Amino acid sequence: MSTANERYEAARMRWAKAAYLSVYDDPKVIKGILPDIRAALEEDPRHVAALVLLSELLMELGSYDGATQVVATLMALEPGVSEHRRKHDLLRTRDRNAIRDYVEGERLPRR
Predict the structure, then answer these.
(1) Beta carbons of 103 and 96 less than 8 angstroms apart
(2) In terms of CATH architecture, what is 4-107?
(3) Domain ranges, ordered by start, for the chain
(4) Shortest CA distance to 40 belongs to which of 4, 14, 3?
(5) Is the pLDDT of residue 111 over 60?
(6) Predicted confidence band of residue 46 (pLDDT cuts 50, 70, 90)
(7) What is the pLDDT of residue 32?
(8) Confidence band of 2 (pLDDT split at 50, 70, 90)
(9) Of the candidates 50, 24, 47, 22, the residue with the CA atom closest to the CA atom of residue 36
(10) Cα(19)–Cα(13) distance, rounded to whole angstroms?
């Protein structure tokens, strides 16, 4: 049985590989990563790193309502973290270009 950390790490590695191969914006690739994140969160619903990654995957998919719910959970768990507020404010704009710039420019794993 995998732990939440192992599931998260598997998802993070797949996301890093997708970024390296420049297929991070392919919905099939993103949807293939989601099961590991969801499994991690079933094990530990307060797993902050998994919630952060889930929010970013949902942002990349254009699922802004889902991402906003995840970010609200993050803000409740870590109210003092400005990055969660920044992400929340960005999602409220629904500006696809700004959201993609954020995910692609700041949040993708680096090569």
Answers:
(1) no
(2) Alpha Horseshoe (1.25)
(3) 4-107
(4) 4
(5) no
(6) very high
(7) 95
(8) confident
(9) 50
(10) 10
